[in-house]
TrEMBL record:
Gene Ontology molecular-function annotations: dioxygenase activity
Family according to the record: Belongs to the DODA-type extradiol aromatic ring-opening dioxygenase family.
Protein name: Dioxygenase
Alphabetical keyword list: Dioxygenase, Metal-binding, Oxidoreductase, Zinc
Length: 268
């Protein structure tokens, strides 16, 4: 078995599915470079519930949970298998950590999951399942949520927090043209904390970082970063995947927390 790192990805706008930009090819290269997971667990802000829910679907449907975009996006499917056994293991770990999770045998993969997975594993040949994001989180509890799932990284599961390093929908919808300096400044502050492994600073990002309120008028797209960091056996070493800025305001950076470490034979 191989201990896997955890991963934070910025999934940007739904158009990331057909406009890979800088980040898409780098995620594809990462998928080839990592030890092959038994499954991918995705936490996305597009599935939020009062208490956690864990997807136990054998063949999750592709959910097109967005409107007003290129019609081609609604034709895309990501025909991946689920992994009910590992999903059940995630449910048990969350229960043991006091999160009161519930199984969900109906829900498919939202675009926060299938869009980045389409780049990471384009052949849809690695099973995937989702765990919902608890609706009431702060920096410490988001980190603890990831930590509850961390044993899965020793069991061949790649834990992915899918959010957005910056996420101001009002500015995105207004059609900002050139890159807004605040987005780069906020992203740089977070990147510095990530690279230094400063977990205390990361957990206080939305209170301390420059332009935090503008970068995240609502918090849900930031918490998956802390879930991913908390899920790592160790936050260091950390690798930054530069994704640039899209639509003037959406930072597309991704972070790999920890390094894959051999614990025997590769995961299957």
């Amino acid at each position: 078995m191989t201990r896997l790192p955890s991963l934070f990805v910025s999934h940007g706008a739904p158009t990331f599915a057909i406009e890979p930009g800088l980040a898409g090819p780098k995620l594809t290269a990462l998928g080839r470079a990592l030890p092959r997971p038994r499954a991918v667990l995705v936490v996305s802000p597009h599935w939020m519930t009062p208490s956690p829910r864990v997807g136990l679907v054998t063949r999750p449907q592709t959910i097109h949970d967005f409107g007003g975009f290129d019609p081609a996006l609604y034709e895309i499917t990501y025909p991946v298998d689920g992994h009910p056994a590992l999903a059940q293991r995630a449910l048990e770990l969350l229960r043991d950590a006091g999160w009161a999770p519930q199984p969900d045998k109906r829900r498919g993969l939202d675009h926060g999951a299938w869009v980045p997975l389409r780049h990471l594993y384009p052949a849809a040949d690695v099973p995937a399942f989702q765990v919902s994001l608890p609706a009431r989180l702060d920096g410490d509890s988001a980190w603890a949520f990831g930590a509850a799932l961390a044993p899965l990284t020793d069991e061949g599961v790649l834990i992915v927090g899918s959010g957005s390093l910056t996420h101001n929908l009002t500015e995105f919808r207004s059609g900002a043209g050139s890159d807004e300096p605040y987005a780069a400044e906020f992203a740089s502050w977070v990147r510095d904390a990530v690279v230094r492994g400063d977990s205390a600073q990361l957990r206080q990002t939305l209170a301390q970082a420059p332009h935090a309120r503008r970068a995240h008028p609502t918090t849900e797209h930031f918490w998956p970063l802390l879930v991913a960091a908390g899920a790592a056996a160790s936050p260091l070493p950390t690798t930054v995947i530069e994704g640039g800025i899209t639509h003037g305001v959406l930072s597309m950076d991704a972070f790999i927390f920890g390094a894959a470490g051999p614990l025997g034979s590769d995961a299957t």
